[in-house]
Give the backbone structure.
Amino acid sequence: QKEHVQQFLATEDALNKAAEAKALSQKLLQRLHGTVDATGNKKLPTGNTSQNVTNSRHLELDVWAKEREVAGLKASLNTLTSEVQRLYKLCAEWKDAEDSLKKKWKKIEEFDARRSELECIYTALLRANMEASAFWEQQPLSARGYASKTIIPACNAVVDMSTNSRDLIERELAAFGQSLENSLCRLPATPQ
């Protein structure tokens, strides 16, 4: 940008010099042709006419050279101006692209933070699931131990009680059967 500014200033300086040279050459041409300058009534001393024509021709050639130089500088200026505009446009596009990338990067960071959060939750749930699985794998052993201490002895006691009750019932039936036979023997043979 510094080079562009320097070139612009050099171009402006050249344009100013060209304008001054053109104005000066026009004044000289007017003096050579004998017209009066607006600032005063002084005339250039007229010398040899062929020398004046040669000087006039030389001045015209200098003016044309300066005009060509000015035209070249104007073309350079136009090229530089269009290049500056292109660079401004490119800078704006890059700024937009940078802003877009920053927004996308922020979304990526937010997503990564959320992913880390969910990963922690997943790890905690997996650990809890494994602990619960180990707990439930131990439950049949615990249930078997509990049953062997409580339910199985109670069932055995019920079996023993039912066996004892059956024996008692059988003895009672046998005793009842005998008492029935004895009482049948005592009954009178004929109705009274």
